[in-house]
Amino acid sequence: MTELILALDVTGREEALAIARVCAPHLDRIKIGYPLVLSAGLAIARDLAALGRPLLADFKVADIPNTNRLITEAVFDAGFGGIICQGFPGRDSVQACVDVAHARGGECYVVAEMSHPGAPEFFHGGVAERLAALAVACNVDGIIAPATRPERVKALREIVGKRRIFSPGVGAQGGDADAVAALADGIIVGRAIYEARDPATAAKKYAAVRG
Ligand code: O7M
């Protein structure tokens, strides 16, 4: 089964809660990050987690191991069920996030390759493959790989095996839900759901990937 993950990047607390509430029946997870947390406050995490869907903290954590550890502890204290970090700071930094996440019964995901047009400036020439291998070596729960480049999801699958691949870039960035759903364990959809006139109907449409 492919999961549907809502990227809830709205910037108002009430709007976020209203959208999450009506979309929740169609979702497997909700992902929030700086846009919502910096505008609505960290306490929004508990309110969203109460909807019963695992909540992913997309802070793309990228610091030294001690700072990564402190950030990850704060994330799990706030009620999140998973955290997303960057791999490029190196193995010890990623391991710090994984260790805290697993000690708290949560999950950790590493960005292997990004979805936007500028991503290949650095994510090329084997870099994403190395990040994916590092993620596996750190025993992460999965990686992030671009729905805008399905062939890259396929290539990274060779490295991560059965570990999850969550794929952003469906809808607003041009990625095709069905094409990516065949390759990834979850599609991450933001604007195509939360900017729709009827977010619940949009979520239901994308939920077709859940089978
Ligand atoms: O569907 P969108 O384009 O409105 O939103 C996509 C979401 O996925 C948004 O929250 C981005 O920050 C995130 N994302 C990407 O779009 N591209 C990436 O390469 C990585 C992410 C992401 O989720 O990283 C963890």
Describe this structure in words.
By secondary structure, the chain is of the alpha/beta class. 42% of the residues lie in helices and 18% in strands. It has an eight-stranded parallel barrel, surrounded by five helices. Helix 7 (150-160) links the parallel strand 6 and strand 7. Helix 4 (65-77) packs parallel to helix 5 (91-103) and helix 6 (127-137) runs parallel beside helix 7 (150-160). The model has no long low-confidence stretch (mean pLDDT 98). Bound molecules: 6-(methoxycarbonyl)uridine 5'-(dihydrogen phosphate). 6-(methoxycarbonyl)uridine 5'-(dihydrogen phosphate) is lined by residues 7, 9, 33, 58, 60, 84, 111, 114-115, 144, 146, 168-169, 171-173, 188-192.
Which tags fit this structure?
single chain; 211 residues; alpha/beta; 8-stranded parallel β-barrel; 10 helices; 42% helix; binds 6-(methoxycarbonyl)uridine 5'-(dihydrogen phosphate)
Shape descriptor reads globular
Report the average pLDDT across residues: 98
Strand tally, please? 8
The separation of the N and C termini measures 6 Å
Please provide the ordered H/E string of secondary-structure elements: EHEHHEHEHEHEHEHEHH
Strand content: 15-25%
Bound molecules: 6-(methoxycarbonyl)uridine 5'-(dihydrogen phosphate)
Low-confidence segments, ≥5 residues, pLDDT <50? none
What is the helix tally?
A: 10
Can you give the helix content as a percent range? Answer: 40-55%
Q: Radius of gyration, Cα only, in angstroms?
A: 16 Å
Sheet with the most strands?
Answer: 8 strands, parallel, barrel
Q: Output the structural class.
A: alpha/beta
